Amino acid sequence: MDPMIVAGAIACLGLSATGSAFGTGFAASAAVGAWKKCYAANKPAPFILLGLVGAPITQMLYGMILMFIMIGKSGAAAGTGLACLLLGIFAGLGIGFSALFQGRAAAAGCDAQAETGQGLTNYFGALGIVETVAIFTMVFTIIALGKIA
Fold first, then answer.
1. Quick check: 30 pLDDT over 90?
2. Residues 13/71, Cβ–Cβ less than 8 Å
3. Is the pLDDT of residue 149 over 80?
4. CA within 13 Å, CB half, 128
5. What is the DSSP letter of 56?
6. What is the pLDDT of residue 79?
7. b/e per residue 62-85 (b: at least 16 CB within 10 A)
């Protein structure tokens, strides 16, 4: 088993998970602040903000999927380790940054939803567009991994 393939797989998961942690953290902080404003104004706190908070977690799953595919390449021909390592790092970064910025967008959505009670569909639509970057990164990385013998 080539240790660089395993390192690439772990890098992909780790970087994706790091982005998800940052993204959910940003969104959760905004949700807590939005709920506090609601409580202070004696308004009901919208539970749906948890949906916005959880949106960036899916990118970690994309990193996990790629990790399993990369580990499946552990019996590949010699010399493929560097390619898997580089794919893992750059795919993990792409997916992780998608999660990070999705969390920042979700944070703005939390604030807006709590304040106005309107626009939730638009906020989720915007998050879906940011999510698409991670999905495309995963799919294109799977295609590239398919080219590795």
1. yes
2. no
3. no
4. 6
5. G
6. 78
7. bbebbbebbbebeebeeebbebbb
In which band, very low, low, confident or very high, does the pLDDT at 75 lie, cut at 50, 70 and 90?
Answer: confident
- For the chain, the domains span 3-146
Alpha-carbon separation of residue 57 from 48, 85, 96, 117, 143 (angstroms)? 16, 23, 10, 24, 23
Q: For 3-146, which CATH superfamily applies?
A: lithium bound rotor ring of v- atpase (1.20.120.610)
What is the pTM for the complete model shown?
Answer: 0.93
Tokens of 88: 């893992």
Q: Report pLDDT for 140.
A: 98
d(CA 12, CA 94): 9
| DSSP alpha helix (H) spans, the chain | 3-40, 49-54, 58-71, 81-116, 120-146
